[in-house]
Amino acid sequence: MARKIMLTGAGSQLGRTIYALLKIQDDTEVLALRRDELDILDETAVRATVARLKPSVIINCAGFNDVVAAENRLATRLPVNTRGVFNLAKAAKEFRAYLCTFSSKFVFDGKKAQPYGEDDDYWPLNQYGLSKHGGEEMVGNLLENFLIIRSDLLYGGGNDFVSRIQRELEAGNPVKVSDDFFVAPTYLGDLAAATLALVYEWAVGIYHYTNDAGNGINCYEFARAIAELSDLDASLLRAVPVLETGCGAPLSLPPRAILSVERFREMFPALVRPWREALAAYLLR
Ligand SMILES: NC(=O)c1ccc[n+]([C@@H]2O[C@H](COP(=O)([O-])OP(=O)(O)OC[C@H]3O[C@@H](n4cnc5c(N)ncnc54)[C@H](OP(=O)(O)O)[C@@H]3O)[C@@H](O)[C@H]2O)c1
């Protein structure tokens, strides 16, 4: 069946990446809407747009991801993660669309020794995590035909951890990077491909997708790999506790919230690759 896909938050780094993949699909019509074309906090506009466009699929990439600003309650746009998602879920239910939206490892407390499965108990430690979990609840409570993809530390959009490390090292600046905060860094192109694989299978429920980092790597290790692959001076990197990087206090961060990708891997084993391979493919492209 041909799909008519409405992409919200199309100006996001993930939205732009998914759009680039959707454009080359034969059996898909794509309607990409940036925030200035559809503010998902505007319930009336969301309903009217879904009623008019009648998409079979909505992929929502709109979100507020500034974890520190969210904690300081400076983020008046944080409700996009909850109320915005709720507005889309209501319209998806009324007009019988399949809704795909994104969540985060921040729904977990990061105290488990092993990677978290999709059905593990959530326990968000901060406002951002609470908002993402709120969005998940709204979707799960309203819809049967939904897909939630949780992911971790995205890069490849040009304004991210990778480009920040490169910029600082190119300028010869020392950079403090945490060695007690663990991540599974994920290339946007891989997440976009994984998303379309799930959407085209009409997968339902929650799925985790990250590049494979085993039980996680710390940010210092990630930064070292960026430096080495970019031929930059890794000796400028300083391993410090996350509290000393400036993005810890007054936040509670989940120290090791790594997402298990086994549910996804069972369906699409070829689409899960090691984090270092993904980073090299991106930096050496
Ligand atoms: N970035 C990560 O490391 C990461 C990790 C895990 C999960 N995720 C999730 O993946 C998704 C995409 O993240 P991203 O990093 O690609 O996002 P991003 O680049 O930070 O972009 C967020 C987008 O959302 C738009 N937006 C904000 N409020 C909106 C509203 N009310 N209506 C419509 N659009 C709105 C913004 O528009 P303006 O630019 O006009 O404000 C922006 O284009 C999010 O759900 C995020 O939580 C991200």
**C-alpha Rg (nearest Å):** 19 Å
| CATH hierarchy class name of the domain at 3-155 and 185-213 and 257-273 | Alpha Beta
- Helical content stands at 25-40%
- The CATH H-level homologous superfamily of the domain at 3-155 and 185-213 and 257-273: NAD(P)-binding Rossmann-like Domain
Low-confidence segments: none
What is the first-to-last residue Cα distance? Answer: 34 Å
Tally of alpha and pi helices:
10
CATH architecture of the domain at 3-155 and 185-213 and 257-273: 3-Layer(aba) Sandwich
Order of helices and strands: EHEHEHHEHEEHEEEHEEHEHH
Write out key terms for the chains shown.
Rossmann fold; two-stranded parallel ribbon; binds NADP nicotinamide-adenine-dinucleotide phosphate; 10 helices; alpha/beta; 285 residues; 12 strands; 17% strand; 6-stranded parallel β-sheet
Overview of this protein structure:
- With 285 residues, this protein is of the alpha/beta class.
- It has a domain at 3-155 and 185-213 and 257-273: NAD(P)-binding Rossmann-like Domain (Rossmann fold), CATH 3.40.50.720.
- The chain is 36% helix and 17% strand.
- It is built from 10 helices and 12 strands.
- Helix 1 crosses helix 7, helix 2 (43-53) packs parallel to helix 4 (83-94) and helix 4 runs parallel beside helix 5.
- The radius of gyration is 19 Å and the shape is globular.
- Bound molecules: NADP nicotinamide-adenine-dinucleotide phosphate (NAP).
- NADP nicotinamide-adenine-dinucleotide phosphate (NAP) is lined by residues 8-9, 11-14, 35, 39-41, 61-65, 77, 80, 84, 102, 104, 151-154.
